[in-house]
Design goal:
Blueprint (H helix, E strand, L loop, with lengths): L5 H10 L16 E4 L7 E5 L11 E7 L9 H8 L7 E6 L26 H15 L2 E11 L3 H8 L8 E5 L8 H5 L5 E6 L9 H12 L3 E6 L10 H13 L43 E3 L5 E6 L9 E6 L6 E8 L6 E24 L2 E2 L5 E19 L5 E8 L3 E13 L4
Parallel strand pairs: 3-4, 3-5, 5-6, 6-7, 7-8
Antiparallel strand pairs: 1-2, 2-4, 9-12, 10-11, 11-17, 12-16, 13-14, 13-15, 13-16, 13-17
Helix pairs in contact: 3-4
Amino acid sequence: MASTFARVVLFAVFSAVAGTSVAQTAAASRAQERQLEGMPKSTWFLVPPGLGSAPTKGHGLLVVLPGGDGSREFLPWVENSVHAQLPADFATALVVAPKWTDEQQIIWPTATNRVAGMEYTTEEYVRAVVADAGKALPIDPRRVLLLAWSSGGPAAYATLLAEDSPFAGAYVAMSIWPKVDAAALARAKGQRLLLDQSPQDQITKFSHVRKAHEALTGASAIVRVSTYHGGHGWHDLPLPRLRAGFLWLLGKEPAGKPKWPDDRPTGAGGKKPGKPGDNLLVNGSFEDGDEGWQTVGNSGRLHVQVQDQDVKDGKRALHLEKTGAMPLDLLVQEIDDLPKAGTVTARAWVRTKDCKNAWIKCFLYRGDELVHQDVDVAQLRGDAGWQQVDRSWPVAGATRAVFQIVLVMGGEVWVDGCEVVVAPAKK
């Protein structure tokens, strides 16, 4: 994976994260499917405004970079729910992520995060969509907004901060804060951004919002922080938040000071994890239930239960049971602020019953770049009693880790004693 996912993209590939939890409305689509001339795989959808005639200065336009796999499957929710939160004269453009190779893991490749075979960047793609929308409708350039979430977030920042960005503001939800160079960050001056994140999010932790807010406001951007309950995904009545956020982006109201939640997790005994030799996972033996873990149930067929019989470490263990096949499901936990040097070891006790295909994985990131390509601790199949699986990597400058328990197909998996430990470098 060339400079990666930045990590959200990996989550999109391995977990199809941020599929909306909002019920979809059954309605005939008014969206026009369009292709950009000279740009292969450039499918996008134009949802027309509700008003029949354009305002004097043109329609507003919302461009959407969806999370997850970036596919057209988000169209019903974007058209029927998101679009309805905009002023009546707005059009909406849903951009579909191009798939350049079967091995592609970055959903939205950019000028700094490229993939093999790509013929254009997301920045170029989005600018072309805005220009094409302007051929179909008169567009007011002062009211062109960007909405992105999860895997779309890093590309949204890249596009918004590009030298020839067409956007007046952006609503970025459940995203990492990627590596941004000084020249791009300087272009944030005067930009309006709304950052929407859940303190309970274990896939893209709330610390990314803190970092984004610090960097962007330091560059004189106008940044409002919005929070909600429920973890990664469109939870906790998202449509009123979207409506309020769009209105704020289009207005001149000050951002106000963020009300920061106490989102920093603690480990056993109330300690903050992070020292070499400590288990950096919170609640790795599930003594506190699933606290500290984020469940991503894409299939709707995953059942997660903490049990107190037949355990391996402590008094409790986690039991995952899934029926059927894809899409995959997972539990995930992210670790920020890894020790700067040494060896990272990820391990877990596991047992299986009729397991078709499951994995223990650990991703290490330096900024938004994947440090090691081989992230598999172990593949789990069939029937097996308790066994400990582990894998080690050099820290190699990694600053954070993401530990995943993944069920691709059906079966049962028991997990206990999960650890991510950094041994100090030998002197």
